[in-house]
Structure formats: structure tokens, C-alpha cells
Amino acid sequence: MNKYKKDFPVFENKPCVYLDSAATAQRPSAVIEAEKYFYENMNANPLRGLYDLSMAATDAYAEARSCVREFINASDDAEIIFTRNTTESLNLVAYSYGLNFIHEGDEIVTTVMEHHSNMLPWQMVAERTGAKLIYLEPEKDGTFSDEELDRKITDKCKLISIAQVSNVLGCVNPIKKLADRVHKNGGVIVVDGAQSVPHMRVDVQELGADFLAFSGHKLMAPFGIGVLYGKRDLLEKMPPFLTGGEMIEYVRLDGATWAELPHKFEAGTVNPAGAYGLKASIEYLQSVGFDYIRETEDRLTSMIFEEFKKFPYIHVCGSDDPLKHTGIVAFTIDGVHPHDIASILDADKVDIRAGHHCAQPLMDFLGVGNTARASLYLYNDEDDVESFLNSIKKVRKIMGFDK
Ligand code: PMP
Q1: In the listed set 285, 314, 336, which residue is the last one of a domain according to the structure?
Q2: Could you tell me the CATH number of the domain that includes residue 136?
Q3: Which atom, in ligand 1's list, is nearest to the CA of 215?
Q4: What is the mean pLDDT of residues 310-330?
Q5: Cα-atom radius of gyration of the chain, to the nearest Å?
Q6: What is the CA angle 276-258-253, rounded to 5?
Q7: Ramachandran region of residue 316, left (φ > 0), alpha (ψ -120 to 50) or beta?
């Protein structure tokens, strides 16, 4: 059994084979305890009160910000904005940067493999500014050819927004290369790190990322806390996204001035317990280490691929190389709707996802309506994969094939 599994109380309370970590991760006791500790020992509205409890909440919140800054190697705590999730972080960039710094005639480049969260905000920016929205199309294995990049990233491209890891194909996109291209035009790159940050070391400076969005819940933190990293000079010139309490310096009847970063982008009461839990999740993640995560995901994905190869009616989306999947295996079984696959597996307490994975344009591009998806994380092991595969082998029989 995986040595980390015991750290996750859900597996003892509700035994299951959890293969839906791309949707949300399970939480270790360290995170659950941290959030509880906050409420039991530091619970007050931070940044406001001049009494002990409130100051403890303020400190906890600030420590969490520093922890995130170090984790992604940002150069300044002010570059870390706490949000609710990746979706809110990406919308913040679209509304605050996109609507103000992208103009008619500019081009925004994204890809057909994006999660809706990283597609709809750019459709909105294009529609309102008159900019042109251009979609990169990948090869079958999820890579982008140089010809495709040359054809679609012109000198009019002022913003690229792309997932570092696709939540369906699992491929890792070439952020650095794209950053270099858009920077030549004086533009910016927005990185959707929802599926990368929990699985690999992400260094915003090394990548050349101008913005990076991710969700706490996919890296074992509580629900409701997310992050937007933005380069300081960009955040400084952007107007606030939401307005209200905490984000102001001074309010008059005829206007206001804004608080310093990062508070300018954190209107209203913040989520210090979530941030404190996020810090605990990052510390837990670091105690496990990305090498272990990578090695575990690669080994288990390879096991799945080896077995799937024996069944011509199973088709995996994306690369044929299991090491290029970041632990994500989206697949179809001929003649069986993915919802039926998921229901049959559920009867064996194997939890996978079925549907369009909030990536309908990618489903259209791949020519599949929906897919099933198994996604792995650091607590999975060989037993999980064996249970999954045993269950998968029953699917066609139950559906009336292969009598
Ligand atoms: N982008 C990607 C690549 C994702 O996988 C997800 C979550 N499925 C999101 C964005 C949105 O994340 P959230 O729902 O936490 O905002």
C-alpha cells in the first residue's frame, strides 16, 4: 500500500479507489487539522482588528502568502493574490488586464484544449475589445507543431493564455517557448496552472509567466482558496477587479484610491482559514516531494497503458506515451457511453470522472462527445490501479458485448 495513503482520513472512513484527483484532490489530516486549528485558535477577521486574535489571523494569512510566493518562486509577496479558485484568477486577468490593455486589432491566442475557465474569459475580452481570438490546434499527442505556432502567433499577438497541463490530454505545454514569442511583441502570457502546480515544480520566473492561476483544492488545500500570481509591474498598472472593503486606501463620496498590492485585488473579507490550509497543503506536498509524485504517477499510468493496449476497443486521448500524461488518462470504450463506464466502476467503489471535463471544444476537436477519465495523485498505488483495471474489464460484458 502507498505509504502516504494513511495520511488521508477519507480512505479509512469511506474506502474507495479514488481516481478523480484532476477534479479535486483528497485532503491529508495535516490540512484538515490546520484549518481546524485556525478556527479554534485564530478566528477573527484579519487585516482589521487591533486585538490579538485578529492579529494572529493577519499573521497566518501573511505567512500563507509568503509560503505560496516561495513555492512558485515569485519575487515578491505582493505578486500573490488570493482568490477563490483558478476560474476567478483567470477572470481577474481577463477583466482587469484584458479589457484595459488589449485593443481592437490585437490578437489573443489560446488553444482548443483549454478548460472552459480559460476560454470563456478570452471570448468575452475579444468580443468587448474587438481583438481577434485565435485557437492553436494540437497534434494527436497534444503537442503543437512549429508550423502551427508560426502560422497563428503573429506580431499582432498581445496575449497568450494556455494551460500548462491539459486536464484531458495530460500533456505539458511549452510555456517558456510561448512566453518568449509573446514577449517579443510586448505582450503577456497567462498560464493556467490548475493541473500543473499540484504535480510538478512550477517556477514562474524560469517559465517567464506573466500570470499564473491555480486552485488550492487540486493540491489538497481546502475548497474556496485559489491563487493568482502576477508580475508586479503588471498588477500595479491594472485597475481593481472587484471593489469594496479592504481594497481601498481612501474613499470619498466622489471616488476612491486603491490599497497597495496585493490588497487592491482582494476586495471584501478574505479566506484566512483557507489560506492557512493552503500553506499546510504546500508543506505536505513538499514533504512528499515532486520526485515521488512524478515517479508514482508515471509508474501507475504505465500500468494502465500496458493493460489498455490489450483491448482494441479502448482508446486513450492524447499521447501513446504514458510518461506524457501527468497522471491523467482520458479514454473511451467502443459502444459504451462514458457515463455507463463510470456507473459500472462506481458499483465497485472505483471513482472516475465521465463527461466533457469542461472542455467541450476539445471533445469536438477529438471527435468524441464525452470521455471517461482516471486521474492519479500521490496517494494512489498498484492496488488502486488493479481494482480499476478489473472493473474496466467487466464493462463491455455488462453492456452486452464480448459474451
Ligand atoms: N483549468 C484547468 C486546466 C482545470 O483542470 C480546472 C479544473 N477542472 C480549471 C481550470 C478550473 O478550476 P476551478 O474549478 O478550481 O476554478
Answers
A1: 285
A2: 3.40.640.10
A3: 15
A4: 97
A5: 22
A6: 125
A7: beta
Catalytic residues: 358
Look at residue 25 and tell me if it is in a domain.
no
Residues 312, 267, single domain; the answer is no
Q: How far apart are CA 335 and CA 22, in angstroms?
A: 25
% of the chain beyond a pLDDT of 90: 98
- 163 CB under 6 A from ligand 1? yes
Residue written as grid cell 471616488? 255
In the chain the first and final C-alpha atoms are separated, in Å, by 34
Mutate to test the pocket of ligand 1, among 116, 122, 215 (most ligand atoms within 8 A of CB): 215
Q: Are residues 269 and 298 in the same domain?
A: no
Q: Give every CB contact of residue 313 below 8 A, 6+ residues apart in sequence.
A: 333, 334, 335, 396, 401
116 alpha carbon to ligand 1 midpoint, in Å?
8
Tally of domains in the chain: 2
| Pair 314, 224 in one domain | no
Candidates 42, 59, 178; CA nearest to 108 is 178
Q: Residue 69: which pLDDT band, with cuts at 50, 70 and 90?
A: very high
Contacts of 217 (CB under 8 A, 6+ apart): 24, 25, 85, 223, 224, 225
Q: Which of 285, 313, 343 is the last residue of a domain?
A: 285
Q: Are residues 51 and 15 in the same domain?
A: no
**Nine-digit cell at 86?**
483558478
Please tell me the predicted confidence (pLDDT) of residue 403. 63
Question: Over the stretch 236-248, which tens digit does the pLDDT of each residue have?
Answer: 999 999 999 999 9
| One domain for residues 229 and 303 | no
Domain that holds residue 297: 5-19+289-398
For residues 221 and 86, give the distance between their C-alpha atoms in angstroms, rounded to a whole number: 13
* Mean pLDDT over each residue of the chain, to the nearest integer: 97
Residue 91 domain flag: yes
Q: Output the pLDDT for position 170.
A: 98
C-beta 281 within 6 A of ligand 1: no
Closest-lying ligand 1 atom to the alpha carbon of residue 166? 3
Q: Give kind and range of the element (H or E) at residue 277.
A: helix 272-288
165 has a pLDDT exceeding 70: yes
